[in-house]
UniProtKB/TrEMBL annotation:
Protein name per UniProt: Bile acid:sodium symporter
InterPro entries (UniProt xref): Na+/solute_symporter_sf, Put_Na-Bile_cotransptr
Membrane-traversing stretches: 39-56, 68-87, 99-122, 129-154, 205-224, 230-252, 282-302
Pfam name, any one: SBF_like
Keyword match Membrane: yes
Keywords per UniProt: Membrane, Transmembrane, Transmembrane helix
Coiled coil region boundaries: none
Source organism, top-level taxon: Bacteria
Length: 327
């Protein structure tokens, strides 16, 4: 039986089911504390496995494209925050204060790794450069995102910890397991790659755990009273506008700087995406528990929109590449 075209992918359905579960049966008390511990361990395992999976040869092969990497990092950590600041008054009019802050948090995050590389490969772009750029963005985000949050997010009621404290927490929870996995990569890397399906399960499972824990805390604090349907629609429009601007600007800048088509594809897909896998645990560290669920709504929505739009865009790039090869 073929899957209906209108039906979202399995992970999106699981994400919606998790939000529904947290809305109907939120974790509280000792149950919530247990989920916090399990979530922390799952995230550490996730980043350890990503460190073990990442091929050093692929990273070295992509290092020579330094102009491309600088542009991708500039799009991720300069262009996005500038757009967030420029659109901040509009966000303030369209959204609730916490959701507006969530949009700014979204702008500070690193790029995705898996989907950026997957879409680059599908579109016939420079895959080795995509691996290097996306990985560098993810690692640098450990340090840059808390700094950007301290500049863009000025509400003392939202931020949970100081910049140095936040960097320390993120390094302990994310970077340390990643480095441990990289150090062990020569011995366990092949095994991890053979069990890629298991890594995908840990990846998605850890995100679902954090989403359930975060939304449970938010629901207990009255999340859905703060986000009525009209506000959710406004949030969708805001995320779509932000993505449209970044896709346009990354495409224009890559062409203006004289990059070839393969490199343009890499810049567009690595420079316009934001990581749910990194953003969820970072929000957990950076923000007070009652507002984490609200902070994550813009990221979750943006993530789904970018996947759908980039899937169409990648197929268009691929068709052009095939047409060029046949002519």
């Amino acid at each position: 039986m073929t899957r209906p075209r209108f039906l979202p992918d399995n992970f999106t359905l699981c994400l919606l089911a998790t939000v529904t579960l947290a809305s109907l049966w939120p974790a509280q008390g000792l149950v919530a504390q247990s989920f916090e511990l399990i979530t922390t361990l799952a995230i550490a395992l996730l980043f350890f496995l990503h460190g073990a999976k990442l091929s050093r040869d692929a990273v070295v092969a992509g290092l020579s494209h330094w102009r491309l990497h600088l542009l991708v990092l500039a799009c991720t950590f300069v262009l996005f925050p500038l757009l967030g600041l420029l659109l901040k008054p509009l966000f303030g009019l369209m959204l609730t204060p916490d959701l507006a802050v969530g949009m700014l948090f979204l702008c500070t995050l690193p790029a995705t790794v898996q989907s950026a590389i997957a879409f680059t490969a599908l579109a016939r772009g420079n895959v080795s450069a995509a691996v290097c750029s996306a990985s560098a963005s993810s690692l640098l985000g450990v340090f840059i995102t808390p700094l950007l949050v301290s500049v863009l997010v000025v509400s003392g009621d939202v931020a949970r910890s100081g910049t140095l404290d936040a960097v320390g927490h993120i390094m302990l929870q994310l970077l340390l397991p990643f480095v441990a996995g990289q150090l062990l990569q020569p011995w366990i890397g092949a095994t991890v790659k053979r069990h890629a399906a298991g890594l995908k399960f840990v990846d998605q499972g850890s995100i679902l755990l954090v989403v359930y824990t975060a939304f449970s805390a938010a629901v207990v604090e009255g999340l859905w009273k703060q986000v009525p349907p009209l506000v959710l629609l406004s949030l969708t429009v805001a995320c779509g506008l932000l993505l449209a601007l970044t896709l346009t600007l990354t495409t224009w800048s890559s062409r203006a700087l004289g990059f070839g088509k393969e490199d343009e594809i890499t810049i567009v897909f690595c420079g316009s995406k934001k990581s749910l896998a990194s953003g969820v645990p970072m929000a957990k560290v950076l923000f007070a528990a009652p507002v984490v669920g609200v902070m994550l709504l813009p990221l979750m929505l943006f993530h789904q929109i970018q996947l759908m739009v980039c899937a169409v865009l990648a197929q268009r790039y691929a068709r052009r590449a095939r047409a060029g090869a046949e002519s």
